[in-house]
Amino acid sequence: MNPLIANIQNTIHKYRRFLDNLNLMETHFELLQFSDTAHCSPGLDSCWIYVSNREDLMTALSISRGGIWQKETREDAIHYTATVDNIPYEIRATNDALPNTCKLVEEEYTVEAQPARQAKRFVVKCNQPISGEPAQTSVHSSEETTTDEL
């Protein structure tokens, strides 16, 4: 087969799958109510949801209908990931969407360079254990959680 035609057919297949995923995402979202600050970025193979308040986070987590979300602290946010109807979702929770046991703090750190220098960044710090684990003090940590454990 002509490689140009194969490339076009492959692109058509990807966009058909994207449209199918958008239709599924629409069914996931159609009954949910988000504030004006939440937004969604659907991609060809996944969907990102950005939330900055607790109500929007709980609404977004309900997409999984009680399923398990992977939870990971990444610098200035907590990321929740799950696959629903074969669509990977990632929720980025910042600011007031963080659990009461966590807060956003500014810290100084050393930038390894020639010569080394000091810099500042914002990171999520959690004071109390989540799901029976020690308090999170590192910039990166991950765990599994269900919507009931948030």
Output the keywords:
single chain, 150 residues, alpha+beta, two-stranded antiparallel ribbon, 2 helices, 8 strands, 42% strand, flat
The string of secondary-structure elements, in order, is: HEEHEEEEEE
Q: What global shape is seen?
A: flat
Gap from first CA to last CA: 53 Å
Strand line-up in the sheet with most strands: 1-2-5-4-3-8
> Helix/strand-derived class?
alpha+beta
Major sheet, described briefly?
6 strands, mixed
Question: How large is the share of residues in beta strands?
Answer: 35-45%
Radius of gyration: 19 Å
Annotation, overall tally of beta strands: 8
| Poorly predicted segments | 130-149
Number of helices: 2
Average pLDDT: 80
Structurally, the number of domains stands at 1
Helix share bin: 10-25%
Descriptive account of the structure:
With 150 residues, the protein is α+β, with helices and mostly antiparallel strands. It has one domain. The chain contains 2 helices and 8 strands. The longest helix has 27 residues, at 3-29. The model is unreliable at 130-149 (pLDDT under 50).
